[in-house]
Amino acid sequence: MPAPAQTRVIFKHIDEAGYTNDLGCYLRHGGYETLKKSVARPPADLIEEVKKSGLRGRGGAGFPCGVKWSLVDRKSGKPIYLIVNADESEPGTFKDRYIMHQDPHQLIEGTIISCFANNVKQAYIYIRGEMPEGARILEKAIAEARAANFVGPNILGTGYSCEIYVHRGAGAYICGEETGLIESLEGKRANPRIKPPYFPAVLGLYQCPTIVNNVETLCQVKHIAEIGGEAYAKSGTPGNTGTRIFCVSGHVQRPGYYEFPAGTITMGQLLNEVCGGPLPGRTFKAVIPGGSSAKVLRFGERYKGKRKAGADMVDYDWGVEDVPMDFDSLAMIGSMGGSGGVIVMDDSVNMVEALANINAFYQHESCGQCTPCREGSLWMKKISSRMVHGDARKEDAALLKSVADQIPGRTICAFGEACSWPTQSFLIKFKDEFEGYAEAKKSLPADRLALV
Amino acid sequence: MIAAPKPDLVTVNIDGVDIAVPKGTNVIEAAKQLQKDVPHYCYHPKLTVAGNCRMCMVEMGMPAVDPATKAPVMDAATGKQKINWIPRPQIGCGTTVAPGMHIKTSSPMVKDAREGVMEFLLVNHPLDCPICDQAGECKLQEQATGYGRGYSRFIEEKNVKPKRTQLGPRVTLDDERCILCSRCVRFSKEIAQDDVLGFVDRGSYSTLTCHPGKKLENNYSLNTVDICPVGALTSTDFRFKMRVWFLKQTNTIDIESSVGVNAMVWSREGVIYRLTPRRNDEVNDTWMADSGRLLYKQVAAADRLGAVAVNGAASSHDSAINAAAELLKAGSVALVGSGRASVEEQFLLKKLADQLGVNASLVARTAAGDKLLISADRNPNVRGALVTGLVSALPAAQLTQLAADIDAGKVKTVLSHGEDLVAAGLTAAQLAKVSIIYLGTHVNPTSAAAKVVVPTLHTFEKAGTFVNQQFRIQKFAAAVPGPQGASNDLMVLAKLLSALGAAAPASDVHGLWTTLAAAVPALATMLYKNIPETGLLLDATPWAGLPFVEGETLKFKPAAAA
Q1: Torsion over CA of A177, A183, A187 and A189, rounded to 10 degrees?
Q2: How far is B53 from chain A (nearest CA, A)?
Q3: What residue spans define the domains of chain B?
């Protein structure tokens, strides 16, 4: 079956010749028309549209956006804040950056619509510290939007006022974890908070109810407001509505970002047809489907089970290539859709060394607050680095797996899962490679890339 | 007695046992009521919950209800409501009880989680227990033994961090031992209100340190040592002095102010090594000021009085008592009692005053309170003197009436129980005009000028009671014997009474209390042995009108000015 054509909704104007990130260009392309329509509607209608749309958060967890909004404590009398999570840090993910760089007004429009729907008077864009250019562009775009009365006091004469502030992140992966982000925004170390009791919807920024949404999610909201929740829900597949942006990196002919209705394209179509297949003379070995913390998939393995198709349960028997790229299918085969960062590895990759790199990253980014993640991530890194740079032992494979098994589900935030899933999955799927690494190492070229 | 309001109770099931606990209780505290140990490091009952050590993980479940009808889902096998167990462990410290909540504190999942956390805590810990001061009272040692795996799988190099950092004048930090529980950080911020500690760097390289340009030097810094579950924060004073398992613990009361902080003396073979706070939720929670802890140094100070003396010459105890009795019998006597003396001593001094037909005075000590555990009234037991009737008004800092009486020739003999009369405003010339009988612990101008000197015991060397600012009577016990030549104050006072012809009262605390209870209305229903370790509140209404010099402290609010 040939791959469907791309449906660019969020990325409609990305890389479009002549499209610039200023207000004039955005307005020429119909910008802020949706905002004008939206502010004339009752806010509850907009929330209802988002609920009907089935929109799932695009930051990684895939939590239904409408549900998130409905959990917000609106009776406390405290102000409600909205935070745009623009701390895009998951290795392999590069979608939000392009929205902010090339189409910032789309984000601002989506943000203001979401703020209006939730009666938010103050929103923050928490942008990754390493993206100064994006911050500059956003500042300029907000100033333009403010001058045109799309942001600020008495928006479009409705009496509704909302300010957006850009806050540059503190330069750490964990700043993207929503409660860590809130701590960081409050000026503290980005140590994630314990939940309960600090659910952002109730006790978020400055202990006020807070909505934290990913950049792409808010852009999707703009689109939902434009076409309506029911129309939106028709694209994609039930439970996985709308489009998804896949950021394909690694060993394919045409890496890049591609937008498709969720679930309408399989991994094989994406990699072989859209991305042009493996590099000449190579074959695919493994793929991480949703950012580096997602569990790795091994080409050649089969996934069998029963899945829902409409009201019925049907058997499925998939290879990696057959898996539809949506949240539920990827979760069903033991990985996740995550942030859409698809990392492809071919047969030139040694999995021990790949994992050593991933482990070095997560060790470096653990905030250090809670024990299993703090000590486990460093221990895994020390083992995998020693295997690569020092003596590898056969028993290291089992030890690595066992250390990783002691982390997930026992930490304050999801970083515990993020740092242990790669090791767990690499060790399950490539156990032989880890156990035989001491031998294999002898025949590896001495001048291969040095690791962190 | 005012009955406490009945708390809202919530029934939870812990390891199969139903227990009702007050609403808001967390799982660690609820389990404690069933004598179930939920091991933990970062949780402290008097600090906010951080939930970072992950040691207190338990398995939790809630009764199942049908999502649509909200009707309970029953388990056919047991006939009880089905329990939906959460597939991942939850932290006990951050989980507050809810009606019907089910908890398992030692299921395989919990054991596995604890083993994992214990192993993680030890991989970068130096394991230098043989040279670590915390050994013997280290949570890491105890819980590694109780819940750990028992062997190490770690063959990598351990992290290197700063050793022997002086965080302030009294606290030494070893960062390699630190398990980053943040108790000290939270204490400094929340209790001491001196936010000087924090972490730098991240992940396993996180390091506890003082903020730039700051020191941990507030008067509560040693509490961080008490609450440090490992050997990271140690007392610079106590470090390397003694193994804790050799030390005997004796309950005492902090003598530095009227708060009456509950404390513990740690001693071995008659030598005191340290003082630490003892939990009393009505008085000091689990805290104590540094200044009070260092007072044990008075006990072995070089200026301790050690010899009984009459007219400057060494004397036997009996001749000194007789010499003192002769002076007292001659009349024109003034008695100076002390707000640092125990209730029992004040009671005997009151008897002595009655025998001689004179009134006693007291010396006030006041300074600004710190709103925490040091009050404005720096005497631990002024209220004892009121309760026993030794005085009926609040004391002044200066003995102006006594000075005038000496100058007028009305007073020929002064008996001072531990008070330095010069510090209380008398001049050397005035001291020279009278015969002084001094019962006290340390050398001072009064002991130097005294005709009769009888060395007595320090608080840590004797038993007794104090009445604190709340009118809470609290008892203390003798931790160490007094120095050679020093006698128990009660014995000296009893002997004086008997030399003056009065019926000899008992000279030990227990014996004396039958008399005391009979004579003092406020203590009528008590006995020393029946006073709980956390003290008993007395009815303070007879003294409610007195203008006590007190500000607010941790557990005390002065009555609003009328």
Answers
A1: -70
A2: 5
A3: 9-106, 130-140+148-298, 309-463+484-524
